[in-house]
Amino acid sequence: MKRFSITDTESIRRKVYKKIREMILKGELAQGERIYEEKIAKKIGVSRTPVREALHALEHEGLLISKPRSGYIVKPMSKEEVYEICELRKVVEGLGLRWAIDRNREKLISELKKNIELSEIKLKKGDIRSFINLDAKFHETIARLSGSKRLLELAMTLRRHMLRYRIESIYLKDNVERAIEGHKRIVDAIENGRNDKVDEALIAHIDTSREDILKYAF
Q1: By the 8 A CB rule, do 212 and 169 touch?
Q2: pTM of this structure
Q3: What is the pLDDT of residue 10?
Q4: Could you give the percent of the chain with pLDDT greater than 70?
Q5: pLDDT tens sequence across 1-31
Q6: What b/e sequence results for 108-146 when a residue is b if at least 16 CB atoms lie within 10 Å of its CB, and e otherwise?
Q7: What average pLDDT does this structure show over 45-70?
Q8: What is the pLDDT at residue 118?
Q9: Same domain, 86 and 69
Q10: Considering the domain boundaries, does residue 1 fall inside one?
Q11: In 3D, which of 207, 137, 130 has the Cα closest to residue 170?
């Protein structure tokens, strides 16, 4: 009989957690929907144990709500949470931008420009869905080049929460075009060496994302 190592077990748990999380963020599990361990386990093709552990972790992450004697439901979305996430992003990503500029301004500009170039190529080809990952990578690049693992973790957690709200609006061509223009303004401000303009560009970009979310998610 094949023996499973701890690494194998952890890998299964992690994959189950990521899969259920993705189902929530992409709306495959709707807000307010009751989660059944057995049903999820069957759909993914695993036992109920890693599903149970994943649901517990997702409750702590704020994506699920525990209901006594009835398991979990997907946490309903709210306008208040959208505002909260956006305001936190401004603080965390603003700090990340300043640190990234101080550490390696040229590398930051180069990587962000490559991201924008690829985003525009995909958009011209009509591949709008690719922008979800490219948008995430744009902001991840800033956080990564800040040199702070804690900041990167915070920034990515906030963006993952925001994706749940933004998933509908980000599939629209006009919204993608506005987001790319926002990215360009951030890079232009970095190149011009105006830290005040960098902050303004980032804040304006996040505010635009917020308004797009509020328009299409509610």
Answers
A1: yes
A2: 0.79
A3: 64
A4: 94
A5: 344 343 455 688 888 998 898 888 777 888 8
A6: bbebbeebbeebbebbeeeebebbbebbebbbbbbbbbb
A7: 88
A8: 97
A9: no
A10: no
A11: 130
Q: How far apart are CA 176 and CA 159, in angstroms?
A: 16
CATH number at residue 140: 1.20.120.530
Confidence of residue 159 (pLDDT cuts 50, 70, 90): confident
Can you give the pLDDT at residue 216? Answer: 78
Q: Say whether both 48 and 87 belong to one domain.
A: no
Question: Nearest-CA neighbor of 128 among 186, 183, 168, 82?
Answer: 168
In a domain, 86, yes or no: yes
100 shares its domain with 158: yes
Return d(Cα 41, Cα 203) in angstroms, integer. Answer: 41
Same domain as 54, residue 120: no
On whether both 188 and 137 belong to a single domain, the answer is yes
Strand partners, 74: 64
- Looking at the structure, tell me whether residues 43 and 107 fall in a common domain: no
The identity of residue 12, as a single letter, is: I
CATH code, domain carrying 33: 1.10.10.10
Residue 151 is assigned to a structural domain of this protein: yes
As a whole number of angstroms, the distance between CA 13 and CA 45 comes to 12
Mean of all residue pLDDT scores within the chain: 89
Residue 86 has pLDDT above 90, yes or no: yes
Q: Is residue 32 part of a domain?
A: yes
Residue 144's nearest CA partner among 119, 118, 107 is 107
Domain extent for 131: 79-216
User: What value, to the nearest 5°, has the Cα angle with vertex 128 and ends 125 and 130?
Assistant: 95
Alpha helix (H) residue ranges in 125-172:
130-145, 149-166
